[in-house]
Amino acid sequence: APGPSLAGAPQLFENKYRNYTVANNLSWQRGDHSIKGGLLFAFEQKDEASGSETQGRFTFGAGGGRTGFQNFLMGNRDGLCGASCTYAEPELEILSQFRFNRYEFYVQDSWRVRPNVTLDFGLRYALYPPVTDKNDILTNFDPDLYDPSRAPQMTAVGSVVPGTGDPLNGIVVANQNSPHGRAIYQFDKNNFQPRVGFA
To answer: Which of 31, 42, 60, 152 is disulfide-compatible with 72, CB 3.0–4.6 A?
Structure first.
């Protein structure tokens, strides 16, 4: 067996999550009606460092008449390993800083029409504004912005031919070309959730 041929120091994911929530519920009994209502406001943040090899990675393959393990031991100090021995590290450490909020409201009435019949009516409304990033690094693919005439050419094996087409064809970038501003998808404001029941 050739033994180890890879040496590196991967940076593991680092996550920090914060949630600031304000919520309140009220109940009111009036005759045959039991009315409830409430609200919830949540302000959430998630900071996440990518799991990249920020310390670099050495790869030692067979070359120069030696096995990968021998090249690992020699460290390619004489250059005999050639292209079989490589070093790589990320060009950029990606730190995502997501920001997202939730706003929810509800009201419901439990109406005792008769001693043996109760009707329930309610409505919840929820607003979930789109997720944003503190530094606007979010991207998304929008089929409506894709232009087939600007597509990169592909080889027979399915790889992109360098220098052809636009590799960002159809890609929206937050706060640059996104039709949603700092967001990368549309804000859905139609989250009405009715409730009807009987017992």
So the answer is: 60
Nearest to 123 by CA among 108, 103, 102: 108
Rounded Cα distance, 120 and 118, in Å: 7
User: Cα–chain-centroid distance for residue 28?
Assistant: 41
At 131, is the pLDDT very low, low, confident or very high (cuts 50, 70, 90)? Answer: very high
The answer to whether 120 touches 107, Cβ cutoff 8 Å, is no
Count the alpha carbons within 13 Å of 165 in the hemisphere toward its beta carbon: 16
89 alpha-carbon distance from chain centroid: 23
Phi, psi of 189, rounded to the nearest 5 degrees: -110, 15
Dist CA 162 CA 146 (whole Å): 19
pLDDT of 179 strictly over 60 = yes
Encoded amino acid at 160, one letter: V
